[in-house]
Amino acid sequence: ADQIRAVPGRRSELTYRRNGVERMVYGRPRSLSIEPDDVADPYWKLVTAQFKLAEVQSYGSNVNTVSINQITSTVGTGLVLAATLPWTLLSSSDSRNGVVTMNSAVPASFEVEITGPTTGSASNIKVWSSDWALWFGVTLNPGDIFKYDTATGLATKNGYTVPANLQGTSTARAKMTPGSNEVIITSSDTSNTIAAAIRWRDVYASI
């Protein structure tokens, strides 16, 4: 709990089961209290707490993940979404783009994870759709992993919290809308070896 409270915007996850369906909510624990030891087990403690919700909605227990692969293009350097469901490649003369279908009933936040190239460096990394854009002012070298969470606006690089360095007209709290979303991803990686993934949970309008 102290690690969560130490970083503004960071949230805890609370998983619960109702009528056989497992869901998850985000928030922060309050009024933590350790119960007296009823069981002599050094690896297990019973803790009671209040949980302050960050929002009045819940999430599916499973994380949806889509890998994004870089390919060599004759019309320019960029990223192209993997040609596997739920992504479908679209024809285009000057960009790499794809479609993701969100099964959520309400718009869903997501996490972008970008892995640096195997050689050289990658910069000018941009992810955008029709109603939002994320343009990262970061440079990634071999072995670097950059993550950005649109739900919290927090970014990490190699596991350490860093400024997101959003550029231009970036939408810090971007969300995927229900249904199909055309997504375009590009970078200046001349080696065509940068890798990325987008992760999200299905969202439900009530707890």
List the helices and strands and how they pair.
Blueprint: H1 2-5, E1 12-18, E2 21-34, E3 47-53, E4 58-60, E5 64-71, E6 78-81, E7 88-89, E8 97-102, E9 111-115, E10 125-128, E11 133-136, E12 145-149, E13 154-157, E14 160-162, E15 179-186, E16 195-200, E17 203-204
Antiparallel strand pairs: 1-2, 2-3, 2-4, 4-17, 5-6, 5-16, 7-8, 8-15, 9-12, 9-16, 10-11, 10-15, 12-13, 13-14
Calculate the mean pLDDT score and round it: 75
Unreliable runs, pLDDT <50, ≥5 residues?
70-96
What is the overall silhouette? globular
Question: Alpha-carbon distance between the termini?
Answer: 22 Å
Radius of gyration: 20 Å
Proportion of residues in extended strands: 35-45%
How many H/I helical runs?
A: 1
Count of β-strands: 17
How are strands sequenced across the largest beta sheet? Answer: 6-5-16-9-12-13-14
Biggest beta-sheet profile: 7 strands, antiparallel
- Percent of residues in helices: under 10%
Structural class comes to mainly beta
Order of helices and strands: HEEEEEEEEEEEEEEEEE
Could you explain how this protein is built, in words?
With 207 residues, the protein is mostly beta strands. Helix content is 2%, strand content 44%. The protein has one helix and 17 strands. The strands form three sheets. Strands 6-5-16-9-12-13-14 form a seven-stranded antiparallel beta sheet, with no helix packed on it. Strands 1, 2, 3, 4 and 17 form a five-stranded antiparallel beta sheet that branches. A five-stranded antiparallel beta sheet has the order 7-8-15-10-11, with no helix packed on it. The longest helix is centred in the N-terminal third of the chain and has 4 residues, at 2-5. It is globular. 25% of the residues are buried.
